[in-house]
Structure to design on (1193 residues):
């Protein structure tokens, strides 16, 4: 069987040239890093790991009708800005302002629900505007007990669990670029979902790995998350 | 000197006797132990002379042994001015002296000391400037003398970084007060950061003696340190220096190669106090050290500091130190008390029991030495008969160690940075602090508490206050026992022959300070600047208090009125590498970046973006650029324009927003068409341009310049909010990858990939816009003419950008497609006379100057800058942007070269290149209004001062009727 390559697909992560030595798997219409080597990376994730989720679906909606639109689509929305609300199917809805929402897809369905939201939206007369978050932002997952310490080397916001509990959203600057950080643990695994400018992904990836080095952190794949 | 043996355990808290380390100092081999500082290892080898003083090159040895003085500045291979008493010893370390002529042991410049009377304070302000011009002669000599150490210019920078650290309570200083505060705060549940400058916890508990038996400190330290180290709520940073206090408890803490940016909700400063020297003649000789330094040497490093010691003290602590020395096998020749009696009478009994002579009410008037001043050999002791006055009768006591302590000065630097006020208490002969901001407290000896029980209680009190304010419970209430005073009020004994140093760093004697006041510098700040007191590496740690006393007396004021000089950050010298940290220089790459690299592109920065300038080697720039441009003119080329700004403007008022922001009209713009968009600011200055593509009545896709889009986006948001329009503006610059497929064969290439759009000129004309798919990828297509050829801008979601590029390059292979870069594009657009905002415009350019009057919809009631544009247009044009050309072989003007009008400068060149298509040099330049008519000759001054005569020509240079782009 041929080895899967990122370039086998039209959709590509901005970081795929960085995934040297990775074992790839298919995620929807794109490749994703399944892991590095054949060993289970769960322990690495618990310690400190960085996963590129840029090929997992995400989309944004903004406008005075956005909340109503999303509720009608079956989403439970956060009550206040800068909060995130996990959905039963594993998706995550983050509220970025009074009238802006960010929908993050789930690995459970390979992002298909959110992908459909993006594909099915049409510009009409209602004040609900789609924001192409999958293309504007890269999506990184920083896992492990040291996640907040790693971010403290890049970002001036206190992201410790005491100050930034699960469900918190910070729209801030890290390593001098704009980022959205969401504390969304997966079970017992501490996780910071980080969305950054897609064009700066390569720069930010290196900055994060550099910050992770002292914690024995490294890139990992999604297999250990499933 | 003979080599001293190490003292037996339990002395030597920091050293590992089983791990010897070889090192060298000034070329001579020595051996130390793991845990030694350079200074302690040298002292263990009997080497006391470590440096030469700044001005008189006097021999100097360790004073504080805590990094608080300049006496141990040494040269390391990659670092000058390292503090030998702070720098950890390492195997093979090569250490050298610095600031000497000849050798450290035999410094020819030591002769300068004999001429000190000709170098009074401020002498260099009053010398070296007459006759005129003589400064240039003296300057290199003085600068050479003033420099300390040698830089290694081949030094490879080390990795330094920064990290934020968020805590509830930051405790600065891990002495007994700091440990107590940290423990009490942590016990309430607060997250505590404990910052300690030294490599050990406990502060004075680790080396000082607090009771006659000498047992309390060790046991207490053990208990406190264990509790702190095991406490889950306490994070400890050792060998870490809190280098400043900034508002809201923002604390820069340097540890190793990292600068922590600490954000503390509460801060407790427990930095302790500096042991103070006594001022007498030759008080700077090697072998004279602060009493605390001798105790550190014994307890921390197990080094016996001398064989025969004299202790000169202004408080009871000196007696306890004498007991330490005695127990370490040092013969204590005398305890000289500046006071008439100790506060605790039992101390006298303790001395008597051990046979240690006791001289109350006396002082050392002069330290004695053998030739060469390498070490103290004895002291001239006299009875004190008045403030700073001694009897004429003297007794000589031989010694090789003099321990001195006049009292303590609070380590007030951080607190004064926070706005704390110092006040001098005459009863205590000491400074106290007040006026600290909320959420900053102080504990321990820095707060004037010296008795151990009071120190511990003060730590608990400060912690209680902090945790109370944090809502964790606790109170700042405490009742303290009375304490004896620890400072002698006038430990200054001027000598008629001088060398009674107030400031060791700068070789300042008593008379230097007094003379400064006689020159009229009454304010202590002016005394500092005139005399340089306190401006050396130790920053007044030992000189501030005697200076304040001397200035107060000389000017007839109180010490409180005189005060001390301002304490500014940083607390200790910090490296630029710490301030810089790990550099963060963001860059942006397009989705096709990898393909550009694979194709051999020479990348160039465009703002923070990385873009291909051309494809080929740097040395072949001209050839590559010309070939790429020609290829676009003749066949087909592909350029990555993903960096082009892109904004989606959607909503019922989308057209209205654009009407108000841009100069052109958009209300009636048909769907499926694009329109040039020029933007001016309120002053009528051109600030950006792009195209507005209308995809729906309520949806415009607006492009903007690469460098201008972020500012434009902010402007749109600002105006949209201000005008309360019903519009959503989204910056989709990074979300859309874009290419420009340009050239006569571009349609043919695109037709092979585009099944759902009619690409014919009739169905998709110039300036048309469409939405469809290209090789199955959803795309926005715009017929544009920036390079003046048939061309299609194709904008697709970024995730597909590279696949689109691959598909176009593959489909174009049959048509000999080749990629082209930004520089080639700039040449192509120059041939068309298209202006690049920011390159061909400046902060003054208005539309009429660049012939953009056609882009203004004058019938509109309003657009930003309209009134200013009208006013500017009503004025006579002062300058105008024109096209010019020169023959092929002429000297090519560069951007910025000046256009002349007679002797005057009338403008400058903004763009210029050789065009292989036109076989001549073409360019754009601002010229005077009288020079702008086609056919005019404009003189341009080029490299080397040559003036070339260019000819003004009509624009565009190429395809004047724009037939090629409209195919």
């Amino acid at each position: 069987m041929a080895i899967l390559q990122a370039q086998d697909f039209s959709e590509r992560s901005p970081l795929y040239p960085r995934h040297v030595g990775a074992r790839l798997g298919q995620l929807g219409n794109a490749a994703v890093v399944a892991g590095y080597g054949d060993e289970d990376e769960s322990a690495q994730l618990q310690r400190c790991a960085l996963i590129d989720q840029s090929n997992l679906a995400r989309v944004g909606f903004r406008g005075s009708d956005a909340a109503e639109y999303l509720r009608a689509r079956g989403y439970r929305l956060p009550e206040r800005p800068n909060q995130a609300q996990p959905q039963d199917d594993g998706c995550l809805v983050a509220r970025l302002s009074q009238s802006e929402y960010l929908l993050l897809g789930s690995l459970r369905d390979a992002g298909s629900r959110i992908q459909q939201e993006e594909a099915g939206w049409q510009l009409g007369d209602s004040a609900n505007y789609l924001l192409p978050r999958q293309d504007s932002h890269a999506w990184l997952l920083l896992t492990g007990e040291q996640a907040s310490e790693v971010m403290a080397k890049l970002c001036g916001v206190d992201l410790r669990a005491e100050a930034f509990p699960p469900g918190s959203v910070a729209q801030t600057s890290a390593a001098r670029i704009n980022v959205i950080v969401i504390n969304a643990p997966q079970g017992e695994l501490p996780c910071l979902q980080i969305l950054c400018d897609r064009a700066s992904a390569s720069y930010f990836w290196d900055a994060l790995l550099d910050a992770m080095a002292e914690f024995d952190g490294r890139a990992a794949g999604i297999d250990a998350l499933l | 000197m003979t080599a001293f043996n190490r003292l037996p355990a339990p002395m030597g808290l920091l050293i590992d006797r089983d791990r010897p380390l070889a090192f060298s100092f000034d070329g001579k081999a020595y051996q130390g132990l793991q845990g030694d500082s350079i200074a302690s290892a040298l002292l263990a080898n009997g080497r006391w002379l470590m440096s030469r003083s700044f001005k008189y090159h006097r021999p100097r040895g360790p004073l504080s042994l805590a990094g608080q003085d300049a006496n141990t500045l040494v040269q390391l291979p990659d670092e000058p001015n390292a503090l030998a008493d702070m720098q950890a010893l390492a195997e093979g370390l090569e250490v050298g002296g610095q600031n000497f002529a000849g050798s450290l042991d035999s410094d020819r410049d030591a002769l300068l000391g004999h001429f000190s009377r000709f170098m009074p304070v401020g002498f260099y302000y009053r010398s070296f400037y007459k006759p005129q011009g003589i400064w240039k002669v003296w300057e290199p000599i003085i600068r050479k003398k003033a420099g300390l150490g040698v830089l290694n210019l081949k030094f490879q920078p080390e990795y330094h970084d920064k990290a934020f650290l968020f805590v509830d309570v930051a405790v600065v200083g891990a002495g007994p007060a700091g440990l107590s505060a940290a423990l009490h705060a942590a016990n309430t549940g607060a997250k505590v950061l404990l910052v300690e400058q030294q490599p050990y916890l406990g502060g004075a508990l680790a080396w000082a003696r607090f009771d006659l038996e000498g047992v309390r400190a060790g046991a207490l330290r053990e208990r406190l340190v264990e509790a702190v180290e095991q406490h889950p709520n306490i994070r400890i940073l050792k060998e870490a220096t809190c280098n400043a206090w900034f508002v809201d408890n923002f604390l820069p803490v340097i540890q190793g190669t990292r600068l922590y940016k600490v954000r503390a909700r509460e801060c407790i400063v427990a930095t302790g106090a500096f042991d103070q020297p006594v001022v007498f003649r030759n008080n700077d000789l090697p072998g004279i050290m602060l009493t605390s330094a001798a105790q550190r040497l014994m307890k921390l490093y197990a080094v016996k500091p001398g064989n025969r010691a004299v202790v000169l003290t202004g408080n009871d602590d000196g007696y306890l130190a004498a007991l330490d020395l005695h127990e370490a096998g040092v013969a204590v020749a005398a305890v000289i008390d500046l006071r008439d009696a100790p506060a605790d009478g039992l101390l006298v009994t303790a001395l008597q029991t051990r046979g240690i002579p006791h001289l109350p009410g006396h002082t050392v008037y002069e330290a004695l030495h053998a030739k060469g001043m390498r070490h103290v050999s004895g002291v001239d002791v006299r009875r004190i008969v008045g403030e700073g006055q001694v009897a004429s009768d003297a007794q000589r006591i031989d010694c090789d160690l003099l321990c001195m302590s006049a009292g303590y000065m609070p380590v007030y630097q951080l607190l004064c940075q926070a706005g704390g006020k110092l006040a001098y208490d005459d009863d205590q002969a000491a400074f106290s602090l007040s006026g600290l901001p909320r959420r900053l407290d102080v504990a321990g000896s820095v707060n004037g508490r010296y008795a151990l029980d009071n120190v511990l209680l003060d730590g608990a009190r400060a912690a209680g206050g902090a945790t109370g304010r944090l809502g964790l419970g606790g109170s700042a209430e405490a009742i303290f026992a009375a304490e004896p005073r620890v400072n002698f009020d006038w430990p200054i004994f001027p000598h008629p022959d001088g060398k009674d140093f107030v400031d060791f760093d700068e070789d300042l004697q008593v008379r230097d300070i007094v003379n400064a006041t006689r020159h009229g510098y009454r304010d202590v700040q002016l005394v500092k600047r005139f005399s340089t007191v306190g401006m050396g590496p130790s920053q007044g740690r030992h000189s501030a208090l005697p200076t304040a006393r001397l200035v107060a007396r000389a000017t007839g004021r109180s010490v409180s009125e005189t005060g001390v000089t301002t304490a500014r950050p940083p607390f200790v010298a910090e490296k630029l590498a710490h301030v810089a940290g790990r550099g963060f220089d963001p860059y942006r790459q397009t989705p096709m970046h990898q393909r550009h690299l694979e194709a051999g592109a020479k990348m160039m920065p465009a703002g923070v973006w990385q873009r291909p300038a051309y494809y080929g080697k740097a040395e072949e720039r001209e050839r590559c650029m010309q070939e790429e441009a020609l290829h676009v003119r003749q066949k087909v080329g592909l350029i990555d324009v993903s960096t082009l700004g892109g904004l989606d403007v959607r909503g019922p008022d989308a057209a209205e927003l654009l009407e108000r922001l841009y100069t052109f009209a958009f209300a009636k713009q048909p769907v499926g068409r694009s329109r040039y968009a020029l933007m001016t600011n309120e002053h009528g200055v051109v600030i950006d341009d792009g195209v507005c593509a209308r995809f729906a009545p309520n949806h415009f896709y607006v492009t903007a310049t690469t460098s201008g889009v972020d500012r434009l986006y902010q402007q749109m948001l600002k105006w949209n909010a201000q005008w309360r329009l019903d519009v959503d503006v989204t910056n989709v610059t990074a979300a859309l990858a874009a290419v420009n497929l340009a050239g006569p064969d571009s349609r043919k290439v695109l037709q092979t990939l585009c099944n759902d759009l009619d690409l014919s000129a009739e169905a998709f004309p110039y300036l048309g816009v469409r939405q469809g798919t290209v090789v199955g990828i959803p795309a926005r297509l715009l017929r544009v003419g920036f390079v003046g050829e048939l061309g299609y801008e194709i904008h697709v979601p970024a995730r597909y950008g590279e696949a689109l590029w691959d598909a176009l390059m593959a489909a174009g292979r049959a048509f000999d497609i080749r990629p082209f870069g930004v520089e080639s594009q700039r040449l192509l657009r120059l041939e068309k006379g298209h202006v690049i905002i920011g390159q061909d415009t400046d902060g003054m350019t208005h539309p009429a100057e660049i012939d953009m009057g056609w882009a203004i919809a004058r019938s509109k009631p309003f657009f930003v800058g309209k009134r200013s544009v009208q006013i500017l247009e009503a004025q006579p044009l002062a300058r105008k942007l024109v096209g010019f050309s020169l023959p092929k072989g002429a000297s090519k003007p560069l951007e910025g070269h000046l256009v002349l009008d007679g002797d005057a400068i009338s403008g400058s060149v903004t763009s210029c290149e050789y065009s292989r298509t036109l076989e001549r040099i073409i360019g754009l330049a601002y010229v005077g209004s009288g020079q702008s008519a086609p056919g005019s000759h404009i003189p341009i001054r080029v490299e080397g001062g040559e003036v070339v005569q260019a000819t003004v020509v009509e624009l565009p240079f190429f395809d004047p009727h724009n037939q090629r782009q409209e195919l």
